[in-house]
Specification:
Layout: E1 7-8, E2 20-22, E3 31-34, E4 37-39, E5 54-59, H1 71-74, E6 82-86, E7 95-99, E8 112-115, E9 118-121, E10 144-150, H2 153-156, E11 167-172, E12 179-194, H3 204-217, H4 231-242, E13 247-248, E14 251-252, H5 259-263, E15 268-280, E16 284-296, E17 303-316, E18 321-336, H6 346-352, H7 382-388, E19 389-409, E20 412-431, E21 446-470, E22 474-499, E23 513-534, E24 538-549, E25 557-568, E26 579-593, E27 609-613, E28 624-629, E29 638-651, E30 656-674, E31 686-708, E32 712-730, E33 736-737, E34 750-752, E35 756-757, E36 760-764, E37 766-769, E38 784-787, E39 795-796, E40 804-806, E41 815-825, E42 828-838, E43 841-844, H8 847-850, H9 864-867, E44 902-904, E45 907-918, H10 924-927, E46 931-945, E47 968-969, E48 976-986
Parallel strand pairs: 8-11, 43-47
Antiparallel strand pairs: 1-24, 2-4, 3-5, 5-10, 6-7, 8-9, 10-11, 12-15, 12-48, 13-14, 15-16, 16-17, 17-18, 18-19, 19-20, 20-21, 21-22, 22-23, 23-24, 24-25, 25-26, 26-29, 27-28, 29-30, 30-31, 31-32, 32-35, 32-41, 33-34, 34-36, 36-40, 37-38, 38-39, 41-42, 42-45, 43-44, 45-46, 46-48
Protein name: SusC/RagA family TonB-linked outer membrane protein
InterPro entries: Beta-barrel_TonB, Beta-barrel_TonB_sf, Plug_dom, Plug_dom_sf, TonB-dep_OMP_SusC/RagA, TonB-dep_OMP_SusC/RagA_CS, TonB-dep_rcpt-like
Pfam families: Plug, TonB_dep_Rec_b-barrel
Length: about 1000
């Protein structure tokens, strides 16, 4: 395929090389710091004049022997302005990480990740078959030295347009020059269970009681139920009509199947083993490390095994010439299952199936006749699905970078950095006969799918720098360079629905289908930077970048810039001695962005492409053609205008320090779907620059050391953030709704409109339960009520007569907080981290499974359906319930979308607690150990929610490729709580 050059325009400088941050102090907790000096391997030093941007640093102590499978999970609660949510507790699943709000209407809102100078993308799902795949799970957290989270224009400008959502720089561990060879080993074993899951499914007795009540409630509506005179009649009627296989002549088979337990382990187990050796002489330093991470998650057949190797070498050929190389490799074996809203999802099936129906038949075979109205065909036994419909994957990832620094003249230096990421994925789906997961399958034939994905990306940056100090007061810096990126994505898929043999080879099938996809996009960038600092007091810096991106239309290039300045007040003669730090800073910049560039699929959207399908006829012809996509040659850059004003104030030699930031980020020319005038045969929607978003907020970080002496230390760090994103403009569309779209990537409860919060809930308003009859409106006691409109002045029991209304809330927390404490007494230490998210709502995407108000009489439900639903059934009366009277077929459609299924997501979580004891050098003389530490750690230990009706994890989301997944709960594997014990050895 001929690939056009499409150049990414970015909003300022982009040095893709590794950023090495020289900071005032390194701590084991996250702390907001200014960029004082950045050496981007090309010796491009951002002197104190660059001290205009804020970022957070999370040190290696937070990543070592962590039970988490990916680095982004560790950042939760540790970084001001960072909001985290997880699509699943299954290791390797994708996550949403949002820094200072959402900046675009399409694409992933995740930040850009850079590992040892290699730009690896935004952690969005790129799997074909797996429920989701987080590319960051390929990186061993134990190999990390530190993570820097860059947030404002002055900092993210270094990474161009791909850094518009923020940048997370990961630096792996390296050896040191003139260091004796050192060895490190650590291991940890943990037990995991659900962190927060209050969905309680009915047992057999509860299920029968509910069915009896449902029959009683349905008298006069279901004609054949009119003969019911008492609850015994109701029970017999329910069992004989809806459970006849398990009820015969008044006798009920002795079955009480707990389907949730049947598809889950009692506990998940996670094991980690890590080793490293490092050292160096005067000219060469090295480090070689490796790890094995094994996780057997809650779902029975799921598994995650990762072997990682990493190496780093740095060499001084001379005082002027230096070389460096970093290599990271991982091999992952992962087993997953059908996820999302798939009918074959064993997790959702386990809460839907009747407890009266057994897993196995009397002869020991699987009971495949389980479903009457649960939306599943014969063969959808979740236990057999787990065992006989396998999804297994292998992922091999290489991330490597090489750099060269050459100081060819006084004050001048040249840097060249080359980084590459290569990922090979093989995803296999093997479904045995008798499990017709796909409607095209026959009961006596199976399915085999083999999906191969190759992703190859590289970036090469060359830069020339000049740094001069004059009279010890004037510091001048200048840099110029060019950077090139290439991204290639190749997919080859083979499938068959006619497998005649259980062995996974296509020669045993009757017919095969093969498809492929080859995508590529490129970026070319030219950049320049000037900076000046006077006497460590006044600093200014300016950056200019010219970027081009091959995915755009006629105009592929854009020019972007940033300006910043700072004033170190503490260096002034008039500054009171009270201040150990007093720095004020401000920056403004215009950055470019292409939100879809980091997700595979729309790389050629600027051109109108046709397709031809020869499989199906149309109008008597053997095939048909149409528009594959409607291109827009006028598509141009999004422009993000960033304003940041902040400062740091420190007292008592920075034992008490405050950092405050105010920011405003306006994204203009926002890309979104635009619908041109309809024509015969298409085209449909196309991308166009039609929107404008407005992000604003505050961030506060407080760090302190209240007690610090030879025996006892107490360190505390707290961060808080306020953030809100508004839709300022949406040209051509007064209201954008996602009603009727129930895919994993959508959310029918939200909408977009000018003047409203991004992703604001726009739904029919729930008004509760009718307490008495109202003949004038046809309302009966127990009916579900809805407000007729947003004024909430009138109600109706007909949901379709109620108008949707704005709620003023979205799934994005307005407030985020994190508080960490560390106590050290001699060799004993105790630390804990609390995180909290406030002022937001979350939605239950599987409410029609968990409580359906009588629509599906053979589906199981949560216990609230029995104990908290209105009924006048004799002996079971309940007139003060939260849920309406359940009636067969649910004629009121109360189970469908409304604000009834929204909950306040406000919560506080004990994110981590760790107690450790170090034996120090007790064994140094006897066996050579200079470190021997044992510890007990817990993660996600406690979760307190403020909404008593919230029964699912408030940090849930459905995917990482769109903001629409935020706050949407599918009944996936839940977020996990871990209790683990480990040891660390060093010699």
């Amino acid at each position: 395929m001929n690939v056009k050059l499409r150049l990414l325009s970015v909003g300022v400088l982009f040095f893709t090389g590794q950023a090495l941050m020289a900071q005032k102090a390194k701590k084991d907790t996250a702390s907001t710091k200014d960029i004082e000096e950045v050496v981007v391997i090309g010796n491009i030093k951002l002197d104190p004049a660059q001290k205009v941007g804020s970022y957070n640093t999370v040190s290696k102590a937070n990543f070592e022997s962590t039970p988490f499978s990916s680095i982004d999970e560790v950042l939760n609660g540790r970084v001001a302005g960072l909001n985290f949510s997880s699509a699943s507790g299954d290791p390797g699943s994708s996550n949403l990480v949002i820094i200072r709000g959402v900046s675009s209407l399409i694409g992933t809102p995740n930040p850009l990740y850079v590992i040892d100078g290699v730009v690896i993308g935004k952690g969005a799902d790129n799997a074909q078959v797996m429920e989701s795949w987080n590319p960051l799970a390929a990186i061993d957290p134990n190999a990390i030295e530190s993570v820097d989270v860059l947030k404002d224009a002055s900092a993210t400008a270094l990474y161009g347009s791909r850094g518009a959502n923020g940048v997370i720089i990961v630096k792996t561990k390296k050896g040191k020059f003139n260091q004796k060879t050192r060895f490190e080993f650590s291991t940890e074993t943990g037990i995991q269970d659900r962190a927060f899951d209050k969905l309680k499914v009915m047992n057999d007795e509860e299920y029968i009681k509910y069915g009896s009540i449902l029959m009683w409630n349905s008298r006069g509506i279901k004609t054949s139920a009119d003969l019911i005179q008492n609850m015994d009649d109701a029970r017999r009627y329910f069992l004989s009509v809806y459970e006849p296989t398990y009820y015969n002549n008044g006798e009920l088979k002795n079955t009480n199947t707990n389907w949730t337990k049947a598809v889950n382990r009692n506990n998940s187990v996670v094991n980690t083993y890590n080793f490293g050796v490092s050292g160096g002489d005067s000219n060469t330093s090295f480090r070689i490390g490796g790890s094995y991470y094994q996780n057997k998650p809650l779902v029975l057949t799921a598994g995650f095994d990762r072997i990682s190797l990493n190496a780093a070498v740095n060499h001084k050929a001379s005082e002027k010439l230096k070389f460096g190389m970093n290599v990271n490799y991982s091999n992952i074996k992962r087993s997953t299952y059908f996820g999302g809203r798939a009918t074959a999802n064993p997790v959702t099936q386990s809460i839907m199936l009747s407890p009266l129906r057994p897993i196995y038949n009397d002869d020991g075979s699987y009971n495949q006749e389980l479903s009457d109205d649960v939306g599943a065909r014969s063969g959808f036994n979740p236990v057999s699905i787990l065992n006989e419909a396998r999804q297994d994957s292998r992922i091999n990832t290489f991330i490597a970078s090489a750099n060269m620094d050459y100081s060819f003249a006084k004050d001048f230096s040249f840097n060249s950095t080359f980084g590459t990421q290569t990922q090979f994925m093989k995803e296999m789906t093997n479904i045995q006969a008798g499990h017709p997961v796909y409607t095209i399958m026959e009961d006596n034939q199976g399915f085999l799918g083999d999906h191969r994905t190759t992703i190859f990306e590289y970036n090469w940056v060359n830069s020339l720098s000049y740094n001069k100090v004059i009279a010890d007061k004037h510091t001048i810096g200048a840099a110029a360079g060019i950077e090139y990126q290439d991204h290639i994505y190749n997919v080859l898929s083979a499938q068959t629905f006619t497998m005649n043999n259980p062995d996974p080879y296509f020669q045993y099938s009757n017919e095969q289908f093969v498809s492929n996809d080859d995508l590529q996009w490129r970026q070319l960038s030219y950049f320049g930077k000037l900076s000046y600092s006077y006497d460590k007091r006044y600093s200014v810096t300016g950056q200019l970048r010219r970027d081009g991106n091959s995915t755009l239309g006629n105009e592929k290039f854009g020019t972007f810039w940033s300006l910043g300045g700072s004033w170190n007040v503490a260096q002034e003669s008039f500054a009171p001695a009270l201040f150990s730090t007093f720095n004020l800073r401000a920056s403004y910049g215009v950055l470019g962005n292409i939100p879809y560039a980091d997700q595979w699929g729309p790389q050629y959207n600027s051109a109108t492409n046709l397709f031809y399908n020869y499989t199906y006829g149309w109008g008597g012809n053997p095939g048909y053609a149409g528009f594959n996509n409607a291109g827009n040659p006028n598509l141009s850059w999004e422009e993000s205008k960033h304003l940041d004003i902040g400062g740091e104030i420190g007292f008592f030699n920075d034992r008490l320090k405050f950092t405050l930031d105010y920011y405003r980020k306006i994204t203009d020319k926002t890309i979104f779907d635009f619908y041109p005038a309809a024509e015969s045969g298409g085209p449909g929607a196309q991308y166009a620059n039609i929107g404008k978003l407005n992000n604003s907020g505050f961030e506060l970080v407080i760090e302190g050391s209240p007690i610090k002496n030879s025996n006892f230390q107490w360190n505390v760090s707290a961060n808080g953030a306020y953030s809100k994103t508004m839709v300022d403009r949406l040209e051509g569309q007064k209201l954008v709704t996602f009603n009727g779209d129930t895919s994993d990537s959508s959310n029918e409860l939200v909408a977009l409109a000018e003047g409203h919060v991004l992703g604001e809930y726009y739904v029919v308003q729930w008004a509760g339960i009718a307490q008495q009859d109202d003949p004038t409106k046809g309302i009966k006691a127990g009916d579900a009520l809805f407000y007729t409109d947003g004024s909430k002045t009138d109600v109706t029991n007909v949901r379709t007569d109620a108008q949707r209304a704005w709620m003023g809330k979205s799934a994005f927390p307005i407030y985020n907080v994190g508080i960490s404490n560390e106590f050290k007494y001699k060799n004993l230490s105790l630390s804990f981290l609390l995180s909290g998210q406030f002022d937001f709502y979350v939605s239950n995407g599987v409410h029609s499974y968990t409580i359906h108000d009588g629509a599906f009489p053979t589906r199981n439900q949560i216990t609230d359906a029995l104990y908290d639903s209105w009924t006048d059934a004799p002996g079971m009366e309940n007139f003060n319930a939260s849920n309406p009277k359940a009636i067969l077929t649910n004629p009121s459609t109360s189970r469908l979308e409304s604000s009834r299924f929204l909950n306040k997501g406000d919560h506080i979580r004990l994110k981590e607690m760790r107690i450790a004891y170090s034996l120090g050098d007790v064994f140094k003389k006897s066996v050579g150990l200079n470190n021997f530490t044992i510890y007990l750690r817990g993660t996600n230990l406690l979760t307190y929610v403020f909404d008593k009706d919230l029964n699912y994890d408030p940090e849930s989301n459905t995917n990482s490729w769109s903001w629409l997944g935020k706050g949407r709960y599918w009944y996936a594997s839940p977020v996990l709580r871990t209790v683990s014990m480990g040891i660390q050895l060093g010699f």
